[in-house]
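Appendix B. Chain record.
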Amino acid sequence: MFENENSSYMSVVEDIFGAYSPHVQLRVENVMQTITTTDIDGLTTVMEVPTEVVVTEYVPDFTWFAGVALFAIVLHSLMRMIGGLLKCQI
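Structure tokens predicted for this chain:
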């Protein structure tokens, strides 16, 4: 299961739950860009030009977080159950 004997905590987590990779969401926004030009005579022209900008958003991988949380809950419940059984001295 574990390839490296001297693996760190992060590699153990990646071996159990898989690599965490946030989802990348791209969206296009229309914005107005102001362009100022000055000619030889000193006349300044200001223009507003509509442009499209691509915005990159990183969205958390909620299914990965939910898997880790459910694993932690199951592990906690299992340990409590084993502790309760050992306390009863089966």
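Further analysis of this model is presented in Appendix C.
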